[in-house]
Design a protein that fits this description.
The structure is a homodimer.
Chain A: E1 26-39, E2 48-58, E3 74-75, E4 78-80, H1 88-100, E5 106-113, E6 124-132, E7 147-154, H2 155-158, H3 167-184, E8 196-197, H4 198-208, H5 219-223, E9 230-232, E10 242-243, E11 251-256
Parallel strand pairs in A: 1-6
Antiparallel strand pairs in A: 1-2, 1-4, 2-3, 2-7, 5-6, 8-11, 9-11, 10-11
Chain A binds a DNA duplex through residues 43-46, 197-199, 215, 217-219, 221-223, 226, 244, 246-252, 272-273.
Family (chains A, B): Belongs to the Nudix hydrolase family.
Protein name (chains A, B): NUDIX hydrolase
Keywords (chains A, B): Hydrolase
Amino acid sequence: MNGNNHVKSEDALREYNVNEFVTPDGYTSDIAIFTITSEKKQEYKPPIMELKIMLIKRALVNAEEKPNIEGGKWALPGGFVSHNEAGGYDAALRELAEETGVKGLHLKHFGVYDKPGRDPRGWIISNAHYAIVPERYLANRKAADDAIEVELFTLKEVFSLSLSFDHMKIIEDAIKIIKRDIAETTVAKHFLPKEFTASELRVLLQLVINEPVVKEDSAFSRKIGKLPFIEVVKQRDGSLKKSQRNSKTPSQLYKFKDINEEEFVRSIYSAKY
Amino acid sequence: MNGNNHVKSEDALREYNVNEFVTPDGYTSDIAIFTITSEKKQEYKPPIMELKIMLIKRALVNAEEKPNIEGGKWALPGGFVSHNEAGGYDAALRELAEETGVKGLHLKHFGVYDKPGRDPRGWIISNAHYAIVPERYLANRKAADDAIEVELFTLKEVFSLSLSFDHMKIIEDAIKIIKRDIAETTVAKHFLPKEFTASELRVLLQLVINEPVVKEDSAFSRKIGKLPFIEVVKQRDGSLKKSQRNSKTPSQLYKFKDINEEEFVRSIYSAKY
DNA sequence: CCAAAAGTGTTGAGCCTACACCCATGA
DNA sequence: TCATGGGTGTAGGCTCAACACTTTTGG
């Protein structure tokens, strides 16, 4: 399976022979890029939002004019981890920056796909990530070398496509995880502008989480200001900052507090039911 | 970096050459095995519990009598994913069964460690998992081929050891994750017998989560029965099943309901604060 | 002044905390 | 009967759901 002989010599251990164990044939990072398209139907109306995922169409031939693996199918953006990168997350960051032209976007690793046979080229291991990218950054997207087309699909649309490799399974998992994360963590903030109105957050949550987890009532606007991870935005002079972008009535702007998500533990045993 | 030529031929794509990209030198699965030692000081007293992690001491020489990499240091149990396994999780399951002699234990993947340089032998990728193993299964533990010693360490002790590779970092991450999981999911059940008393669960939670997340009061025994994922244990005839193992007064036994953890979403937006 | 979104007032229900107290049992 | 862990009774407080209602504003 392997003819590799690359050994870093270290003190007495230089006898080690890498031949002794099996090695993968490749190591890649794939990214499920989510965005929410936000369409303003009219002035003074909350926007119509839709959750979409960005896919690329794999080229029919590669750079050397040879037939490309899984060419012509839609796939998650991604690629091989190159040797000068500090691992799969780094590679995913680079891919994400290449696809969107923007750095510093939200990216999270959520799984490893390593079943032999998932890629016809050999035993290729994929690190799966999801990214949240505000719609405006996808405007200036550009196709990478081996991609010929880029497109946003609704979740419904994506399930009717024929995807490359095991990307359908990866996307299914990504959707589950992003839904859970939006409900249970504050990642929703990456879909929203820094300062947002109660209705914007409410529409987003109802879009992603169907359940009656979010009260549709006016109760939400009353509760949002009391949530421990959200605060009202004030102006310099201390007065409340409001916006009229969704209604004639000025509505309060909120923002997510700068908290350490890691330390924000909500025990199921002390929760109130 | 690579001399590999293993290509699965597939329809028109047989021209593909694996040489074109960089491959890892190895793919391993490591497991942080947690257990809670439960010492009964006296009859009719709740046990004294302590959270521990199982480590192995790497042999000084390997099977071929050559000096072993990182020999003599404590390390997480684990090993290379072999070619007939369906990926890293499978390999971890095998390792866990080998270390404990028991199958079907709780095992969860929580991260990938793939920074070049983390292993002196080359670019070796590790899938990190944590396992929860009831203490009794660690009694009949046996050292694997390349291990000479097995020992349980308290979390305090482990931080004063010199560990192999980046295992200290992996363990730190594992501890964070298992603490969060115990607070936010029902994995605590894997530390407990199927039927447990309120005090057993309370001691466990207080052991792992220091915060005042769990009220020390008698309030806990009142609340536990109302938690949506726990139910009281009844006897055949419908009467409540009680135990006297921790006190002279018979105390109620509880068990975790069989729920789908995945679908048990607790939105931070609808939570009560 | 109308329409529409934002937000307030109010009431009753349910859960939580705290504290005091009772219960069951082996020694 | 005592010591001890387990469990109950109750009052006050807080949050929440629900419903009706008011406010703000551009057109």
